[in-house]
Write a structure and sequence with these properties.
- This protein is of the alpha/beta class and 102 residues long.
- It folds into two domains: 69 residues, NAD(P)-binding Rossmann-like Domain (Rossmann fold), CATH 3.40.50; 32 residues, no CATH class.
- The protein is built from two helices and five strands; from the N terminus they run βαββββα.
- Strand 4 and strand 5 form a beta hairpin.
- The radius of gyration is 15 Å and the shape is globular.
């Protein structure tokens, strides 16, 4: 299953979440909050390709590490998609494929 937290970082047992990500109990995590914020560079959450971190501090600068998902820059995805989305509501990059179940 997926885990999304937009509440408080202190409400999540991050060690348990990391263990669940490693063993496959959690297949995806989206975290707008962590404890602490900003998340230290050596935190294991940065190493997962199936974790997106958009921490509260991510609004502060475009280069913030929290705006990265794997090797994709979220602003790059946004700017690639916005022109076609405005015209005909299609996405050209990183589109969801509902036939694959996500």
């Amino acid at each position: 299953f997926a885990f999304i937290n937009v509440g408080r970082g202190s409400t999540v047992a991050q060690r348990d979440l990391i263990a669940a990500l490693k063993n496959g109990q959690v297949r995806f995590a989206g975290l707008d909050v962590t404890s602490p914020e900003p998340l230290p560079d050596d935190n294991a959450l940065w190493t997962f390709e199936n974790v997106i971190l958009t921490q509260h501090t991510s609004w502060g600068e475009h280069a913030n590490k929290g705006r990265r998902f794997g090797k994709s820059d979220l602003f790059e995805i946004f700017f690639a998609n916005i022109p076609t989305f405005i015209v005909d509501q299609t996405l050209v990059k990183n589109a969801v494929d509902l036939t694959k179940g996500y």
